[in-house]
Amino acid sequence: MKRIYLTLLSISVLLNCISAYAWGPKGHDVVAAIAEQHLTKKAKKNLDKLLDGNSIVYYSSWMDNIQNSPYWKDGYNKTKTWHYANVDKGETYQTMKKNEKGDVVSALTMLTKELTENYDNLTDSMRVDYVKMIIHMVGDLHCPMHAGRLTDRGGNGCKVKWFGQKTNLHSVWDSKMIDSARKWSYSEWRDHLDRKDKKFKKAAVQGTYEEWFMGTVENAAEIYDYVERQEKAEPNLSYQFVYDFSPMLEEQLLLGGLRLAHVLNSIF
Ligand SMILES: [Zn+2]
C-alpha cells in the first residue's frame, strides 16, 4: 500500500512539474503535425537529414523533457525561461519587465537568427538542438497561459477548479483543456483543424514573433476576464468553459502549426 501511495505521489509530482512548462505533449504534437503538412519539399529533406530521419512531431516536447533531466540539467538550465513571457495587465512585450535570462520571444528570435545568419559556424549538435527548440517554442508561443500575467506566474497562481478538481489556470491551458475538449489523437486534431483555405493560411503567417506573441496575450486577457467575471474566488470551470474557449484553443493550435511551418521553410 505504501509503495502504491509513493508511486501515486511521484506521478502527481511529475504531472505537476510537466504542467508548469508548456502545452502538454498533445498540444505540441498537434502544432508540429500541422506544421509537417505545410513544409516545402526542400525543408522536409533538410530537416529529415538533420533530425536523423525522425519527424518534427517526434521532437515536439523534447525541450520540456530535456530541461527536467538531471543529466542535462546544467547544459539546458539556461533554457528554463524560454518557454514563456509573462506580461501584466495593460502591458505589451515592449513595455513589460523583461526576464534577463530570456523569454520565448527573445529566444525564438535569437535561435532563428543563428540558424539563418550563422548556420555555417554552428556545430551539427547546435543546429539539431536549435531546431528542436524552435519546434517546441513556437508551440509555447501560442499557448495562452505562456503569455499570462507576471503577478500570478502565468496563471500558476490563479486558483480554479476544473470539473470540481482543484488546479490553476496555467495547468488548465497546458493540458486539461485539450484533453477535455475532445478525445482525439494528435493526428485527429490535425485532420479536423487543418482545413482552412489558402487565404487564411497566407494571412496567418504574416507578422513577427512579437506580433504573434501579442495575439496570445490578447487571448490570455480574454481568459482572465472570464475568470474574474465568475462570482466565486476559486471558480469551477467545466463544460461551459470548454464550449466558450474551444474556438480559441483550436485557432491557437492551427496558427502555431502554420507559423511553425513558415519559420522552418524560411530557415531551410
Ligand atoms: Zn515548453
Write a concise keyword list for the protein shown above.
about 270 residues; mainly alpha; P1 Nuclease; three-stranded mixed β-sheet; 12 helices; about 60% helix; globular; disordered N terminus; binds zinc ion
SSE inventory with pairings:
Layout (H helix, E strand, L loop, with lengths): L1 H18 L5 H12 L4 H10 L11 H7 L4 H4 L27 H14 L6 H18 L17 E4 L2 E4 H13 L4 H8 L4 H7 L4 H21 L6 E2 L1 H29 L1
Parallel strand pairs: 1-3
Antiparallel strand pairs: 1-2
The structure holds zinc ion.
- Number-wise, the strands total 3
Structural class: mainly alpha
Annotated CATH architecture? Orthogonal Bundle
Q: Give the amount of beta strand, in percent.
A: under 5%
So, the CATH homologous superfamily?
Answer: P1 Nuclease
With strands numbered from the N-terminus, the spatial order across the biggest sheet is 2-1-3
Kindly give the count of domains: 1
Largest sheet: 3 strands, mixed
Heteromolecules bound: zinc ion
User: How far is the N terminus from the C terminus?
Assistant: 54 Å
Secondary-structure element order, N to C: HHHHHHHEEHHHHEH
User: From the alpha-carbon coordinates, what is the Rg to the nearest angstrom?
Assistant: 18 Å
Low-confidence stretches: 1-20
CATH class category label = Mainly Alpha
| Averaged pLDDT | 91
Helix content: 55-70%
